[in-house]
Every structure is written in structure tokens, then in C-alpha cells.
């Protein structure tokens, strides 16, 4: 399947089909009093306190779940107190609770005892699977297959909605260009097109065709906006970017999500140029509701409204609640500030009641869209929950997704795939054991239910001797000696190295994105034996590889692959499948190159090819490029790109040309190659990146097979944000590449767009 900006436009066309559905009609009715008499009648009956309650979301107080590690129970309440508050109309729902039984008890109390019987809504961070864990979103992006992300999101919704969850705080669609930032792992990495296509696919997957269905969940693309642009990659840090960069880089995945039907979004923790998102009226109202006509609702991030005080933007909690609601943030998460202050703010005339009503209208409409007024228990059925959990079908999908997320960076001398008969020494802290398999953002998952690497390799029929060698960041007594002993009798060493899953994710920024030193020492000791060495990386971000790890004969990037981690890696190691993943983030030579993205500007003094020249834009220590760039990934085949062919030397203003190249697999394995179509605008009124991905195509090639990959180029693919912050296309010359990565030459040529 070929994916282009055009196919996004087609998807937007589908969005107009969506516009004709009852869901869209309901969505459109938000804000139109006459179209929603039922909701208006309800609002008319509500007290100010009940209105504030509908805008208040709290962490679940249901104890005993792993979820409590992520979010401490709300306000120190007991579950019974929380149920009593729900019955009193003081909350709209809870998040990161656990299971249909909890939801049943709360919903039953509210529906039988509360004054107005407004159903609760249950939310959760279902980021990459519920009980069955799929690869980390960043890993899955490496598949360059948005359709796969749609399927895994659908499967996650099937399980999670089965456990009573109506609303997921996903997908995370923040473009992330600084690998020091720990939350890179939650998104799709550095590229705008890939980010937008995956964002839309995940929304479609979570929400399905019908949001009232008992296997559909409301999506919440987050964090709006530019959370990934934090200075120095430090989580929560200041963002200071131009409106053009915001519009061109950080907003497109959000726009794509809304066009795919997402009806909620979450305000980001960061400020942008001095204004925290949670109080940013321009962002939440002028742009989102005004310019984009977004019909849905905005929730703050966890205590994001209260944090306006720490930002130095609000005086106190009351002021923070006032600023947030006036900016257009409809629902307050975790702080309870809306419940505490909105009634008084309205009574004192500091917030118009109409503004509160508007937010309540959005929330109630969304509950209606979810079918909760028709049947508050539609997703709540403890028997169904068990039946939907970890089905054979979902586990098979986890294995497929795991395999497709693996990226082979290098394979010198064809050391991979390993013959099943080879004696393998599997060494390193991630070789064996129920840890670091599902990733750090799996509220309902369990490493003990996932397959580790040693088990996966043995299941495949391999002969494996395991040695831990060292811990993730600390030595193990006698570890290196045991590793050397295991390696001595082996034909090949597989080193399972990288980051623990707690080293990426929220608040896990790093100043040095390397494999921890103690693991490098282990690798150096083992490398001295001179055996063929395969490095299998576990990571939640791009890493700067060094020394013998960087120079190993083969390197696989395996992220955190989820439930079928070990089996999926074994599928690749032993060659039942060829690697097909491509890097969604560039692996730099050195941390000091961050922030890094392949679509950078050339500058007035670009580095010329060849040896270092003074007074050019370059580092003293390392090249400007990436060690392994965005889009890079090898297969077990041998791929050659033919010459670029254009069916016209000129691109007419209202026309199109077909740009094509042959791709040949001259190897002996069946493969999938991701052909990437890049452009560069040579001269423009706003300087343009050295390359920009505008389309890609994943093609299956049998041994000795040649296929022609073709892309249709029209002027919409050459658009950028002009001086007036509006999309523009300018005539002129464009360089073109169909290539296997952002740094490869592949097949190249140029074209002129005429006015
Ligand atoms: C995170 C959000 C998450 C929320 C609720 C916050 O700390 O930034 O991404 O959805 O917690 O768990």
C-alpha cells in the first residue's frame, strides 16, 4: 500500500463521508442548542456544582491495580468515598481504574442513586495495548505500516472496552526530535508525514466505525501542543518556537487525528513562547475551535491547570481554574480545581456561566456519542472482559507487529540470519527473565505474561546458553567471567543490551543517550574473544552507539516489543522472516548532535563533502549526518535502486507527473523494502529542509524480483507555510529522490514546477 500526503487528503475525503454519520451529526450538535434538546434540557436542570462535577476527572481510587503506580489514588480518597462523590455529581468519571467490576459498581451507584443519572465515563492510558501488549508506539512506527497501527489500536480497543474503558488517552502524536526526551517512545519519532499517518490510523483503530460499539473507545490525541519540543529534551521544559514551526512540524499529526474523527485532545504541560498550553486561548479556542472547527472537548493533563501556579501564570488554584476554562480547557484532570472553584467563579462573575455550559455541553455530547445515555453499561460486562483478554488472535497480532517493528542496522558478512543449528551464547541484562519486555507505559500489562528472548529463541528450536553478564546500570559479581565462559563454547554471541524500560517515558530525560557504560564494558570483554557478535538492542529512543557495540557485525533495534517480544525477535534472528522495519528516528553519532532531524535546514555555510573545512556548519568531533539515519533499515535481501524516471520534465501547475524507479532484490530471501520518496525545494520565500519525506511504499520482493515503484507528484506535495503562516506553493526547481533512507542517494533527479 502506498502512503502519501495525497492518501491523507483522500482520508480527509473519507472524513467527509464520516461527516454524514450520526456520530458527526452529534458532534456537530455541540454548541448548537436547538440540535440537542435532550442535552440542553439536562443542562437546564443542573446546579453549578453538578456542572463543575461533569468537568472533573479524577484518578481512580480502586486499589490494588498496577495502575495505582502510575497515578496515586485521587485526593487520598477511598473507593467508597469516590463512589459517594460520583453519586453526589462531583465527578464526570475516573481514569486508570481497573476492570469491569470496578466500573460496574460505580456506574450502578450513579445510575440508581444520583439526582440526574448522568453516566460516568471511564478513561485510561491504553497506549499500545491493554492486556496484550503491542510494540511501543515508536517501535511500531518502524513498520512504516499505518494500517498495522490501525489493527493494533483496534485490538487494544477490543480488550480495553471489554474491561469497561470508554476513553483512551492515546494516541500520543507529539513529534519528537530530541532523543534525550524520554517520551520519544510514546510517539512516532521525528517525521511529520509518518507521524500524521500513524496518528490518523490509531484514531481510526481505537474509535472504529461506530463509537457506540462495545469494542470502540474514544481517542485522545495528545499533548496539544508541541510537548516534544521541550528545551534540552528535558521533560516538561519550556518550548519556544515560531508559529511557522508549530504549524508545519508539531500540529499536522493533531490535524490528521481530528480529520480522522478524534473528538478529544489533551492540553500539554509545556508553555509555548511564554504561554502554558493549559491557559492558551489562542491554541485551545482561536486555532482549535475557530480555525479548525474542532467540535470536541479538551481535557487538561494531570494537574496541568494547577501547574499554572508553578509556571508563574496563575496566582492560586482559583485563578488557575479561571484561566483554564476561559482558554477553552473543558475538563480538569486530577487537580479537582474545577470542582473546587468553578461555582464560585461563576457566582462572582469572573467566568460566564455560558462558558461553563459550553464545556458541559461538549462533555455530555461526548457521553451521548459513546452511547452512554442509551446504555451506561454497554462496555461493562465482567464475563466479556475475561473472554476478550489476550485472545489467540491478539497474541498472533502482537507477534506480527513485533516482527515488523524490528530494524536491522547492520549485517556484515551475512552473520544473520543464524542457522538453527548454531550454538548461541546469549549474553546481557535483557537475555532472559520477565522484565523490560512490554515497555514502561503499559498500565494493564504484565512482563510475566510476555515472552523473553531466551524463551523465544528456544521455542524456535535454537540452542542457547544464557549469561546475564551485568545489570542494566550496575555490574554483577562474576558476571563478565560467566559471560566469557558461555561465549567460549559458542559459534556466535548474541548480546542483549540497552535501556531498562524505566529509562524512557515520562520524566525520563537523559543527557547521554548511550548504552550504559557497564554494558559497554561487558561487550568489550566479550568482543575480545573474536566471535561473530550480534547486538540486539532494547531501547525507548534512538541511541548513540559507541565502541564495539557500534562496530558489531550485526545490530538489531528491538525497542520494547510487548507480549510476543522474544518470539518476534527469534523470527528475525533465525530468518523465518526478513527484517523490514525502518528507523522512525535517526541514530546520531553522538548525543551532542541533539536535537536532530533529517529534514534540517542547509544553513548559509553547509559542510562541503570531504575533509573538514573551517568556518562551515560542522562539529569538530563527528559528522553532521546521522550514523544510521531516519528511514534506514536492512533486509536479508540485497536491494538495488535503478534510475529515476519521470513521465514529464516539467510539473504543470494543475497537473501531475509520475516519478518512478525500479527496485530489485538480488538476494536469496523474500523481503519487504520501504521505498521512500523525498523532495527538496531549491529556492523558496521561506528556506526549506534539505530533504522531506512526501510518500513511501512498502513493497514485497521475492528473490531476484524487480518491481517499479511509482509516486504521483502534484503541487500539493510541495506545499509549505509561507511568510503569512498560510500554506503556499511556489514554482521553481525541486530535487527528487526515491531512496532507502533519508541519507541514501537511491534514484535521484529533479523537476520544475511551472506557474
Ligand atoms: C501524562 C499523560 C497521561 C496522564 C494520565 C500524565 O502525567 O502526561 O500522558 O495521559 O498523566 O495518566
List the keywords.
755 residues; 3 domains; binds beta-D-glucopyranose; 17% strand; alpha/beta
Can you describe what's shown?
Helix content is 31%, strand content 17%. The chain has 755 residues and is α/β, with parallel strands linked by helices. The chain folds into three domains: 16-132 and 152-180 and 199-234 and 252-385, TIM Barrel (Alpha-Beta Barrel), CATH 3.20.20.300; 419-578, Rossmann fold; 639-753, Immunoglobulins (Immunoglobulin-like), CATH 2.60.40.10. A six-stranded mixed β-sheet has the order 1-23-22-27-28-20. A six-stranded mixed β-sheet has the order 12-17-16-15-13-14, sandwiched between helices. The protein has a five-stranded parallel β-sheet with strand order 5-4-3-2-11. Helix 20 (453-459) links the parallel strand 13 and strand 14. Helix 15 packs across helix 16. The structure holds beta-D-glucopyranose (BGC). Beta-D-glucopyranose (BGC) is lined by residues 70-71, 96, 125, 169, 222, 301-302, 506.
